[in-house]
């Protein structure tokens, strides 16, 4: 007798973390931009780091679950497959994270978050929500 749930039931346990953490990071960054508050920007930075870590774990569990479902056997068109959209979204978010890490160094100067960064991050959040919606449909949850 195993105490672990079946592999296809583990992925749904992880999916909420990157959704919540990326969204919270975006919220803190936006408020930090508006209020020119370094503490809010710092909160956005740390939430983004946690979101990246949780997204990796979620992706791993997603690939394991797909070994049973098999929807990634037909990943095209990309905008109609949950896994394809979420892989694209993860790469998008890595790009945003990398930009922030390399170019802006956690936005140490108050009010230095560029609006283009926030716009790109917001697009990433919309992609994340859309991919999550496709996942909920795939799991017959909506």
Distance between the termini: 32 Å
Please outline the major beta sheet: none
Proportion of helical residues: over 70%
As residue ranges, the low-confidence spans are: none
| Overall number of strands | 0
* Domain unit count: 1
Radius of gyration: 16 Å
Average of the residue pLDDT scores: 87
Query: What percent of residues are in strands?
Result: under 5%
Q: Which structural class do you get from the secondary structure elements?
A: mainly alpha
- What overall form do the CA principal axes indicate? elongated
Order of helices and strands: HHHHH
Count of helical stretches: 5
Helix and strand layout, with pairings?
Blueprint (H helix, E strand, L loop, with lengths): L6 H8 L1 H20 L2 H32 L12 H23 L10 H24 L4
What does the model show?
With 142 residues, the chain is mainly alpha-helical. It has one domain. The protein has 5 helices and no strands. α1 packs antiparallel against α3. The longest helix has 32 residues. The two termini are 32 Å apart. The mean pLDDT is 87.
Q: Could you provide a short overview of the structure?
A:
Helices cover 75% and strands 0% of the residues. The chain is mainly alpha-helical.
Question: Which key phrases capture this entry?
Answer:
mainly alpha, 5 helices
